Structure formats: structure tokens, C-alpha cells
């Protein structure tokens, strides 16, 4: 059953339309990630759902009820902001209880909920502190805790990891994943521009580009069957190789796409001869950049260490079953069933 | 159902509350500023007097300018614009504003440059510089009136000891020196304000510009003229305009330091004299109106010229 | 080497001149206030006597004590009312998008440029009509003309720079606009409120023209007018000692405030003027 439904939702700022006819249906308990490059409208879409921006046209429903004209606090949602937006002059406890106070809950109920959330997030010992006495990761937990106490139907995250350093980002990502397992009835909507976060967290990903939904699907669907050239290029790291010209034409496509991990590299024989221009060694993998004769630059992912010198002649062999073909409009050409 | 822009419940609630929050302030400002200003302008076209305000009748421009025919072929111009004393007070105001703002800018710049240096005790010096600003204008005027006293004043004593003057000067009483006395007090009192504004401008100039100039071997005087001065010019200009507007409406210092002399009477003093001392309420209102127009003109020009960012749009 | 020393000496000489010119008049006023009788009429550069007679005279005889209370009352009430009105107005002006906001700000700012004399006759009529003539409330009311535009302007600028997300978090928490101001913004705004409050206090404390015009009896007057009107029986009997004692009494609290809140006042002054 769908908790959040958007029907032909448009958003204009003045004369600029930033979201065009968005149709989405999100299931209860799902973890949904909105992903896309900056300026694609993903944060605006989240803010429309939150009620912080007006919907220009179209309809938003939560649990079947129209929400366009409902105040943010009455929508049964909670939001974790990019900058955490903790109230700097209130203690952690007050930060978490403020919203409940506004909802006129009893003191005992407020206390119970705050302590339950604090226990869940292991921040009980921080309850008396002020936000400026907390580390970035602790602030993040408090922001999540504040959202949890509201016991929302829908949980909104607006790029919550972007203010954390790399190591903490991974830990927090795992915690958010664990949190969503602990709250199986709560729908999570998570905005990010980082496709790794999207792939690791999401049940389903919504890829947005220039105010349009490009594709909705599970991470593996997006990876294996991208619905457009844009999605193919956006999902997966390193990026898919796009080859045009003769090679693509021979495959009956405008663009031929092959992921770096779907190309075999050999020093002796293969389909595409070429010359190594650069290698990037990550330890676990090596990215080998090859200038293939008559085809162009191709990035190949080799597992483990690969000490191949630039200038070396190599041969590449694509895994034809994993290749993607796109027409001139960027739509995939569906392969006949094997 | 689709909601047109700006009409969701949240937007409605916010816009409604915006006007609710603004209302008290706007009402007070209306009663205390807009309405009285309108009434002042109205009075200037009537024959209102202090005791008969409500029965004032419209008389056109007669408070400003009127040709009175004596009936024998002779006649004369009357009204504010034909009054020698008014024009004298306009002249006094202009002189006061020009000289005081000029000196305040020069001294303010010097003090700002000093305070911008790193040196031991800078905080104390800055505190000391602020003192004249903190002293009420009336108190400053009285303090200086005492220091400028013709018989017992310390200023005469000092200047005579230094050999600058041969005999005591009646600073505030003599028509030759009254304006100088007023200027001295005003410059002393207001230079700190100028210095602070210019200092703020100086502190906004990024340090690395100076470092770059030093690496290029530019001599200090040229650094000041070619780098510092152009960069702080906007701040200085704003400060000068603010001060000039303030100086054009000067009242307290003149009223307390040198009462009743033609040598220092400014437009504000002239207007108040007529309003309340000479019982020429309508005529005084005309003088107030002219002063308002002068200041309004300068303000509007300034706002147009600088195109101030009032919406606070951030880039 | 010698040139550098000379330059340092020159610099400190300049600093000395600046400090002396700034401090000397007030120093001399204190000096005078401590002299009595004949000592007053001898020019001294350093304290010769320490006589509190002038202070005793000012504070025990006459209504000067009452006048100080008048000033304290007027300035404090002006601060409280203008801050209350300005905070709510600043919230609307900084946080809510609505038509005509820019024009409104411009109008408010231009009121601060009004010459007081231009509204004097109209205001006189309003105050008489309201029955406030010779009442301290006439000053509380009329001082709004200069405190309000300034406080609104500075607080709007300050509020505009508070993070938007904090307010949005409060909206998500279900706080009404009043609650947002009271519980979220007010606690964050106290630095700006201290600054603008202080400046409004100083301005109200020093104001002369309205106080001279709207109050007519001695016991109602505020201190600037009181000091301006102290006079002797003739020009040669002006009680300079008393005037200086009164001046020192009136000024000391201000100087103390300014020195304590130096930084805040400087930032407030420049915010009001430069951030155009």
C-alpha cells in the first residue's frame, strides 16, 4: 500500500518551472532515495512533501489523504536537515521535546518518547548538553532523535551526511540503514547527490534530472537496466563507457555502453586493441585508461593490483551480455530475450 | 485540486502573520512620523497659531512668499523666502555642515588609520576615543561652554600660555568666533562616530592585498593612495552622507552653546524659534517643510545613486 | 634604524594627542565639579581640591534627582517598547516573502533620515490631542520616530543572517510564528538586541528637542533639558560647579555602558550605517 503519492506535481518559482509533472507512489516502510546532480530538483521535491514549499499544481497524498493544504507539522512527517538545524540555545533534551510540546503532549509522554529515542540512538548521556558541545556525528544523532520522537509516518532526510567527514559518513550510513530496519512501518525518503549512498541505502531509487523523474527502481534494476543514457551514466562507479560512431552503428545503436567492470583486459589477445594511457591504483582495484584504436578512450576496471605501464599495447574484450545500447534519443534498445 | 502559488495553508498563515507582526510598528510610525509630517506641511499653508491650530485656514503660499502692495504703488516681498534672517540661517547651516563634515572626515580617517594599526594598548585608545561620542550633546556643549568661558575658561588660559592669542577671547559670545566654537564642539563630539565607520571600512579590506603590495615593493604612501583609499571610499562616502544629513538638522549644540545670535542660527533653530517662541506656528512650519524637502532630496539622490540592496538578496 | 625609531615616536605622539583631546574635556568637567566657591575661578590642570559640595547641592536641593528618574523611565520604556515592536516587525521583514517588502523597508529607513524639526509642529498637535502634553509618555511616544527605524533595520539585517533551516525545523515541529519568535529567534537574537537596545537607550537619554518642547514643568523634565536650563540670577552667576556636577552624574553611566559594551556598540553602529 502506498503511503506517499504524488500526482502530476509541478513546482514553479516565478516563471521557472523546476519540477515537471512528477508522478510517484511510495510504499509503506520503503526506503526511497532521491538522487540526481545538483539543481535537478530533488531537494525541492523533498520540501514539497515536507510542506515547506507550496505545490504549484498537482496533488500530494499521504495515507490517501490530500496534503497540499495541510501544515507541515500535521502531515505526520519528520525531517532531518542538512545542517541538522538543532536549536543552538536548547539542550539536547529540549531540542527533542520541543515539537512534542507544540503538539500538547503530556509531560510524562514527552519524557517517555525522548528517553526511548535517546536510548535507541545511544545519546542518553548527551541529553543535558548544548549542540555546540557535541561532535558532528553526535549532532547528527540528535537531529535524527528529534525526528524519531515525533513518531512520523514518513521520515525525510535532506543530504544528512554531507557535513560529516568520510569515515563518519560510512558509519552513519550504516546506522541509518539499521534505523530503517528498526522502524519497518516508517517510510524513509532520503535525498543525496551521492550515488554510493543511494545504492547502499535504498529499497528503491528515484533518479531525477532537470526536474523530471528519469527512472524509479531498485538499485540493481538501475544498474542492470538503466532506462536512459542519463541513468546509465549516473549510476555505477567508475562511470560507464559510452562509445559512439562506427562501433555503436555496427551494434545498431547510437550509443554503445559498457561498464568498466564488464571489460576483460589482456596483453595478448582480444576484440579491441589499444594502448594504455594511465593507470589509477586503488589497491583493491586498478582503473586502466586505454586509448582503443579507432574507438576512443575506454576505462577498464581490473580487480586487485595491476602494474601495467602506460604505453603498453593491450587488448580489450567486452562482456557482450552486459553491454547496453541506446538510440539517438538516449532510450535503451531492448535486447531480444535470449 | 491544485493550489495556486502562495496559497497553501502555510503560506497564507505566514503572510497573514507578517502583516499582523508589522501592524503595531507601522501604526506607531504612522502616528509619530507620517501624520505629523503631513500636518506640518499643511500648517505651512495656513494661518495656524499655537493656540488656534484647529481653526487654521488655508492661505496658500503666503507663508513662503507674498507680494504686499502698500497701496501707493510701492510694495515689498514678505514670507520665508524673502526673510534675510532665514537666508542667513540657511547659510549658517550650509557652512556648519560643510566645515564640520570635512574636518570630521579628515580627523576620523586619521584616527581610524591609527586604530587599524597593531600596537600595545589599542583597546584602551579605542575606548578613550569613544568617550566624546558617549557624552550627551547638551553636556558636551556645557562642558565646552565652560572651557571656552571668556574669563575663567581653560582654553583661553592654554592658548595664551602657548602664545596663540594675546588676550582672552569670548568664544561663544563674539559673533566672529561663535560659529568656530560650535564647529569645535561638534567636530570633537562626532569625529569618533566617523572614525568607527571608516575603521569598519578599513577592516573589510582583505589583508593579503597589503601583503601583495609589500611583495611588490610599493611604498606606504602609494599603498594608501592607490589601494586603501579607493577600497574604503564606499564606506567613507556612506558615512559622509549620513553625517551631512545629520549636520543639516543640527539643533542642540547651537541652541545651548550660542543662543540667540545671528552668527550661528541654523534652519532648525530658526524653525523652532518661530514655532514656539515667536508664536508664528504656520511660518515656522513652512521653515520646517523647506528643511525637510532639502533633506529628502539629498536622501533620495543618495539611495538612487547607491541602489541599496534593500531586499537583502544574497548572491 | 634611527628613522624607524623616529617613526615609532611620531606614531605614539599622535596616539597621545588623540587620547588627550578625547578625554580632556570630560576630565576637566570632573575637575571643575569637585571645586567650589573661589577655587572654581582659578584655572587648574590638576585636581586642587576634592569638594563634593556641588554634587550634594544637585542631589539634595531641587528636583534634579526626580529628573534623573524621569530620564531613566523614559529611556527604559522606549527601549522595551521599540525592541518589542521591532523584533516582531523584523521577523516579518526578514523571513516572510510578501509583496512590497523592499518598498516598506525603504520607507522605514527613510523615516530615520527625517529631521525632527519637520515633524515637530504636527507632533505637537498630536500630543496635545492625546492629552500627553507635559507627560513623560509624550517622550516615550515621540522617541519612537528615531528608535524604531534603527532597531527594525538592524534586527532585520541580523535575523536575515540566522540560518533558515532552524526556522524550518521549528515549522516542522509545529511551532506557530509567535512561538518561533519567542522560543527560537529571541534567544538567538540577544546580542543584536543588547546592541540596539543600548543605542536606543543612549539616544533617548540624550534627546533634547522633543524634551524641550513637549514638557513644560521642571519636575517633568529629563536631564539634558534640566542641565541646559540651569542658570543663575545673572550671566555672571551661572553655577558652573553645579552644571559640571550634573553633567558628570548624567554622563558617567553612559561612559561606563559604552566602555563595557564597546564591541557591541561599534558593531551596532556600523551595522546601522554601512550595511545599506
Please describe what this structure looks like.
The complex is a heterotrimer of chains A (338), B (315) and C (276). Chain A is an alpha+beta fold and 338 residues long. Chain A has two domains: 2-233, Rossmann fold (3-Layer(aba) Sandwich), CATH 3.40.50; 239-326, OB fold (Dihydrolipoamide Acetyltransferase, E2P) (Beta Barrel), CATH 2.40.50. Chain A is built from nine helices and 18 strands. Chain A has helices at residues 42-50, 92-102, 107-121, 136-149, 166-182, 195-201, 219-224, 229-234, 246-250; strands at residues 2-13, 16-27, 31-35, 57-62, 65-66, 77-80, 154-158, 187-192, 204-209, 212-217, 241-243, 255-258, 263-266, 272-281, 285-292, 296-303, 313-318, 324-326. In chain A, the strands form four sheets. In chain A, strands 6-7-8-3-9-10 form a six-stranded mixed beta sheet, with helices on both faces. A five-stranded antiparallel beta sheet of chain A has the order 13-17-14-15-16, with no helix packed on it. In chain A, helix 2 (92-102) packs across helix 3, helix 2 packs parallel to helix 4 and helix 3 (107-121) crosses helix 4 (136-149). Chain A is globular, with a radius of gyration of 24 Å. Chain B folds into two domains: 9-78, no CATH class; 85-279, MetI-like fold, CATH 1.10.3720. Chain B has a two-stranded antiparallel sheet. In chain B, helix 3 (122-134) crosses helix 6, helix 6 (178-203) crosses helix 8 (220-248) and helix 10 (267-277) runs antiparallel to helix 11. The longest helix of chain B has 35 residues, at 9-43. Chain B is globular. Chain B starts with 8 loop residues before the first helix and ends in a 9-residue tail after the last helix. In chain C, helix 2 packs across helix 12 (240-260) and helix 3 (64-95) runs parallel beside helix 6. With 276 residues, chain C is an all-alpha fold. Chains in contact: A-B, A-C, B-C. Chains B and C meet through helix 1, helix 2, helix 3, helix 4 and helix 6 of B and helix 1, helix 3, helix 4, helix 5 and helix 7 of C.
Can you identify the CATH superfamily of the domain at 63-225 and 251-274 in chain C?
A: MetI-like
Shape of chain C: globular
How many DSSP H or I helices of chain C? 13
Secondary structural class of chain C: mainly alpha
Mean pLDDT of chain A: 91
What summary fits the major beta sheet of chain C? none
Helix content of chain C: over 70%
SSE succession of chain C: HHHHHHHHHHHHH
Q: Give the strand content of chain A.
A: 25-35%
Amino acid at each position: 500500500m502506498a503511503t506517499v503519492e504524488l500526482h502530476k506535481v509541478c513546482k514553479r518559482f516565478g516563471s521557472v518551472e523546476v519540477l515537471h509533472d512528477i508522478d510517484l507512489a511510495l510504499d509503506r516502510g520503503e526506503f526511497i532515495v532521491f538522487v540526481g546532480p545538483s539543481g535537478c530538483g530533488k531537494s525541492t521535491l523533498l520540501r514539497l512533501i515536507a510542506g515547506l514549499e507550496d505545490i504549484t499544481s498537482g496533488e500530494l497524498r499521504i495515507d490517501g489523504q490530500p496534503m497540499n493544504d495541510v501544515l507541515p507539522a500535521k502531515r505526520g512527517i519528520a525531517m532531518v536537515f542538512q545542517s541538522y538545524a538543532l536549536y543552538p540555545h536548547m539542550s539536547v533534551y529540549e531540542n527533542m521535546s520541543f515539537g512534542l510540546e507544540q503538539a500538547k503532549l503530556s509531560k510524562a509522554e514527552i519524557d517517555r518518547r525522548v528517553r526511548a529515542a535517546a536510548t535507541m540512538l545511544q545519546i542518553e548521556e548527551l541529553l543535558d548538553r548544548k549542540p555546540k558541545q557535541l561532535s558532528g556525528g553526535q549532532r547528527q544523532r540528535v537531529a535524527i532523535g528529534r525526528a524519531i520522537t515525533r513518531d512520523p509516518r514518513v521520515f525525510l532526510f535532506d543530504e544528512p551526511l554531507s557535513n560529516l567527514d568520510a569515515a563518519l559518513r560510512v558509519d552513519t550510513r550504516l546506522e541509518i540503514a539499521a534505523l530503517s530496519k528498526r522502524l519497518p512501518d516508517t517510510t524513509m525518503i532520503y535525498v543525496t547527490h551521492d550515488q554510493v549512498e543511494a545504492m547502499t541505502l535504498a529499497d528503491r531509487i528515484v533518479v531525477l534530472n532537470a526536474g523530471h523523474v528519469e527512472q524509479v527502481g531498485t538499485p540493481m534494476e538501475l544498474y542492470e537496466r538503466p532506462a536512459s543514457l542519463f541513468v546509465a551514466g549516473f549510476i555505477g562507479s567508475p562511470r560507464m563507457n559510452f562509445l559512439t560512431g562506427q562501433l555503436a552503428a555496427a551494434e545498431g545503436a547510437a550509443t554503445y555502453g559498457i561498464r568498466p567492470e564488464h571489460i576483460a583486459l589482456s596483453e595478448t589477445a582480444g576484440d579491441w586493441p589499444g594502448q594504455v594511457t594511465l593507470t589509477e591504483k586503488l589497491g583493491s582495484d586498478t582503473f586502466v585508461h586505454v586509448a582503443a584504436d579507432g574507438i576512443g578512450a575506454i576505462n577498464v576496471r581490473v580487480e586487485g593490483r595491476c602494474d601495467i605501464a602506460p604505453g603498453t599495447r593491450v587488448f580489450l574484450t567486452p562482456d557482450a551480455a552486459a553491454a547496453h545500447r541506446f538510440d539517438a534519443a538516449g532510450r535503451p534498445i531492448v535486447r531480444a530475450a535470449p | 485540486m491544485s493550489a495556486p502559488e502562495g496559497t497553501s495553508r502555510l503560506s497564507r498563515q505566514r503572510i497573514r502573520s507578517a502583516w499582523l507582526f508589522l501592524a503595531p510598528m507601522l501604526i506607531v510610525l504612522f502616528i509619530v512620523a507620517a501624520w505629523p509630517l503631513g500636518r506640518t506641511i499643511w500648517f505651512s499653508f495656513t494661518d495656524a497659531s499655537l493656540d488656534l491650530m484647529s481653526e487654521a485656514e488655508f492661505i496658500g503660499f503666503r507663508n513662503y512668499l507674498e507680494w504686499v502692495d502698500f497701496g501707493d504703488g510701492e510694495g515689498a516681498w514678505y514670507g520665508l523666502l524673502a526673510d534675510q534672517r532665514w537666508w542667513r540661517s540657511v547659510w549658517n547651516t550650509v557652512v556648519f555642515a560643510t566645515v564640520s563634515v570635512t574636518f570630521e572626515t579628515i580627523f576620523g580617517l586619521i584616527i581610524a588609520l591609527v586604530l587599524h594599526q597593531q600596537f600595545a594598548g589599542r583597546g584602551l585608545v579605542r575606548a578613550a576615543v569613544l568617550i566624546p561620542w558617549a557624552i550627551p550633546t547638551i553636556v558636551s556643549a556645557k562642558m565646552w561652554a565652560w572651557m571656552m568661558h571668556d574669563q575663567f575658561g581653560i582654553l583661553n588660559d592654554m592658548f595664551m600660555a602657548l602664545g596663540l592669542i594675546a588676550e582672552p577671547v569670548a568664544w561663544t559670545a563674539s559673533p566672529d568666533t561663535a560659529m568656530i566654537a560650535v564647529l569645535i564642539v561638534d567636530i570633537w563630539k562626532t569625529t569618533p562616530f566617523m572614525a568607527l565607520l571608516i575603521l569598519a571600512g578599513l577592516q573589510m579590506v582583505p589583508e593579503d592585498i597589503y601583503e601583495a603590495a609589500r611583495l611588490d615593493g610599493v611604498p606606504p604612501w602609494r599603498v594608501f593612495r592607490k589601494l586603501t583609499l579607493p577600497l574604503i571610499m564606499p564606506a567613507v562616502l556612506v558615512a559622509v552622507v549620513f553625517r551631512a544629513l545629520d549636520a543639516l538638522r543640527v539643533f542642540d549644540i547651537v541652541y545651548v552653546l550660542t543662543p540667540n545670535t545671528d552668527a550661528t542660527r541654523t534652519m532648525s533653530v530658526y524653525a523652532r524659534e518661530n514655532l514656539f517662541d515667536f508664536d508664528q506656528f504656520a511660518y515656522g512650519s513652512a521653515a520646517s517643510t523647506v528643511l525637510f524637502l532639502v533633506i529628502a532630496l539629498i536622501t533620495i539622490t543618495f539611495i538612487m545613486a547607491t541602489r541599496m540592496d534593500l531586499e537583502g538578496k544574497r548572491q | 634604524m634611527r628613522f624607524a625609531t623616529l617613526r615609532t615616536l611620531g606614531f605614539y605622539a599622535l596616539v597621545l594627542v588623540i587620547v588627550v583631546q578625547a578625554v580632556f574635556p570630560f576630565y576637566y568637567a570632573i575637575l571643575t565639579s569637585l571645586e567650589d566657591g573661589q577655587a572654581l575661578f582659578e584655572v587648574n590642570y590638576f585636581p586642587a581640591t576634592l569638594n563634593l559640595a556641588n554634587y550634594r547641592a544637585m542631589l539634595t536641593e531641587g528636583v534634579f534627582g526626580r529628573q534623573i528618574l524621569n530620564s531613566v523611565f523614559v529611556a527604559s520604556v522606549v527601549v522595551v517598547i521599540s525592541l518589542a515592536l521591532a523584533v516582531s516587525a523584523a521577523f516579518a521583514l526578514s523571513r516572510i516573502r510578501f509583496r512590497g517588502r523592499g518598498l516598506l523597508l525603504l520607507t522605514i529607513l527613510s523615516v530615520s533620515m527625517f529631521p525632527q524639526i519637520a515633524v515637530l509642529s504636527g507632533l505637537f498637535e498630536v500630543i496635545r490631542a492625546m492629552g500627553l502634553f507635559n507627560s513623560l509618555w509624550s517622550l516615550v511616544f515621540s522617541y519612537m520616530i528615531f528608535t524604531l527605524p534603527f532597531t527594525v533595520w538592524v534586527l532585520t539585517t541580523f535575523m536575515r543572517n540566522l540560518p533558515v533551516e532552524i526556522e524550518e525545523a521549528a515549522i516542522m515541529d509545529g511551532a506557530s510564528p509567535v512561538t518561533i519568535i519567542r522560543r527560537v529567534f529571541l534567544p538567538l537574537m540577544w546580542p543584536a538586541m543588547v546592541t540596539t537596545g543600548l543605542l536606543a537607550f543612549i539616544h533617548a537619554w540624550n534627546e533634547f528637542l522633543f524634551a524641550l518642547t513637549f514638557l513644560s514643568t521642571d519636575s517633568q523634565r529629563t536631564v539634558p533639558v534640566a542641565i541646559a536650563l540651569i542658570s543663575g540670577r545673572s550671566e555672571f552667576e551661572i553655577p558652573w560647579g553645579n552644571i559640571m556636577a550634573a553633567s558628570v552624574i548624567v554622563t558617567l553611566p553612559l561612559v561606563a555602558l559604552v566602555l563595557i559594551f564597546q564591541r557591541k556598540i561599534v558593531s551596532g553602529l556600523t551595522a546601522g550605517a554601512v550595511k545599506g
